[in-house]
Amino acid sequence: FSYPGIWAITVYRIAHELYHQKIPLMPRIMTEYAHGRTGIDIHPGAHIGVSFFIDHGTGVVIGETCTIGNQVRIYQGVTLGALSLSKAECKRLRSKKRHPSIEDDVIIYANATILGGNTVVGARSVIGGNVWLTHSVPPDTEVFIKKQDLIFGEKQYKKQASKQKIH
């Protein structure tokens, strides 16, 4: 495969079927192999619709209980993950939804992070690069970071004290 995203998605689709047939370990081995080859980590338990595309996929992470609709596109470095939880909460939520839901026709640009099982990105929405989301977004919404200020300044150098030669 020339495209790592297609490779990772193909392996995921096979692993996902095995995962739902309750075949132990093999689905995770398959997706970890794809992760090693592509840098794209898709848990075999995730639910992903048709026409899903990952472009420049290095660093993409898709968690176990994530649900992704049809015709969704994501770019490099996107994380669809769980919120940080205490050990007790982890045990309690093990069988619950911990990862976000992405509805149909959504675009998620580079390095966006979307966390939490109650987080839903509505259909036809666009999530801009570097956005951090832990709450839901209604359908037909664009979420971008407002202009960031870059500060350029002259670097200040300290003169080193002259070294003395010791005889």
Describe the model:
- The protein has 167 residues and is α/β, with parallel strands linked by helices.
- It has a domain of 102 residues: 3 Solenoid (UDP N-Acetylglucosamine Acyltransferase, domain 1).
- The chain has 3 helices and 14 strands.
- The strands form 3 sheets. The protein has a 5-stranded parallel sheet. A 5-stranded parallel sheet has the order 3-6-9-12-14. A 4-stranded parallel sheet has the order 2-5-8-11, with no helix packed on it.
- Helix 1 runs antiparallel to helix 2.
- The longest helix has 17 residues.
- It is globular and about 65 Å long.
- The N and C termini lie far apart (67 Å).
List strands and helices in order, with pairings.
Elements: H1 4-20, H2 26-38, E1 41-42, E2 47-48, E3 53-55, E4 61-62, E5 67-68, E6 73-75, E7 79-81, H3 87-93, E8 101-102, E9 107-108, E10 113-115, E11 120-121, E12 126-127, E13 132-133, E14 142-143
Parallel strand pairs: 1-4, 2-5, 3-6, 4-7, 5-8, 6-9, 7-10, 8-11, 9-12, 10-13, 12-14
Helix pairs in contact: 1-2
Taken from the alpha-carbon principal axes, the silhouette is: globular
Task: Spell out the CATH superfamily of the domain at 42-143.
Answer: Hexapeptide repeat proteins
Q: Report the order of strands and helices.
A: HHEEEEEEEHEEEEEEE
Beta fraction: 15-25%
Q: How many angstroms separate the termini?
A: 67 Å
Radius of gyration: 21 Å
CATH C-level class of the domain at 42-143: Mainly Beta
User: Could you give the count of β-strands?
Assistant: 14
Question: How much helicity do the residues have?
Answer: 10-25%
Q: How are the strands of the biggest sheet laid out side by side?
A: 1-4-7-10-13
The CATH architecture name of the domain at 42-143 reads 3 Solenoid
Assign the structural class, choosing from mainly alpha, mainly beta, alpha/beta, alpha+beta, or little secondary structure.
Answer: alpha/beta
Figure out the total of helices: 3
**If you average the pLDDT, what whole number results?**
90
Would you identify the regions where 5 or more consecutive residues have pLDDT less than 50? none
Q: What can be said about the biggest beta sheet?
A: 5 strands, parallel
Can you tell me the CATH topology of the domain at 42-143? Answer: UDP N-Acetylglucosamine Acyltransferase, domain 1
